[in-house]
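Box 4.2: Ligand-aware structure prediction
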Amino acid sequence: MRLAVFSDIHGNAIALEAVLRDISKQSVDQMACLGDVASMGPQPAEVMDMLIPLNSIFISGNHDEAMLQPERRNELGISPFVQPDFLWGLERLQASHFEFLKSFQSKVEINVTNEIQLLCCHGSPKSSTDFMHPGTPSDTLNRYFESCPATVIVNGHLHSQFHEIVQGRHMINPGSVGMPFKVPPGPGCPPVMYPWAEYAVISLTNDDSDGKMNVQVELRTVRYRFEKLKEILLSSSLPGKNWWLEQLAQPEFM
Ligand SMILES: [Fe+2]
């Protein structure tokens, strides 16, 4: 089985377009979108319109949950700093987009073979606001995964790609399509973006010779039309568009 996983599009349809084009060349059997699709960026409705016809698994991120229940946005981890952009995106969604968001699942488990169980989630199987990063302490992982048999975990939320094997489990984060972090947000410090879109292709097979599972992970990056995104931002009323324009003004985006 070959699976393309992508996450955290955050209203950047230009980046999503490039990722979907790249995925179309990878001969995958299945796609999984791990959430945080429409909010924060300048193209919330455009992203939804691109996702609706896709034959893909859709997982609900904390931003997606908050779009359906905006009164819970603080507890769902939407920081006050980005709430003007969140609310701007919310106003631009139509009834069909909300219906689509309601179809997202909190987690999806797939039995790929007897030996490979794959779990897709946004944060952890317990909550869309849990974080996993390289080196997450084992007692935290044990808490996230108690009574979860999956041997391959794919999740989003971090906006940073990684693949590590912990206690025999593959932990895979495909990074972020629309807002990959070179520098994550800190107290009083906005994040800094990488000049590409991120996703992952995962190949899961049973090796015939010894019957063991084989998990291959390709963390991919794709450049996209930065000039087009800049054009869209310049004519947008997105409250935080200056942050986006500052990112695009970095030399690496030229
Ligand atoms: Fe996100």
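In the box above, the bound molecule is fe (ii) ion. The chain has one domain: 2-253.
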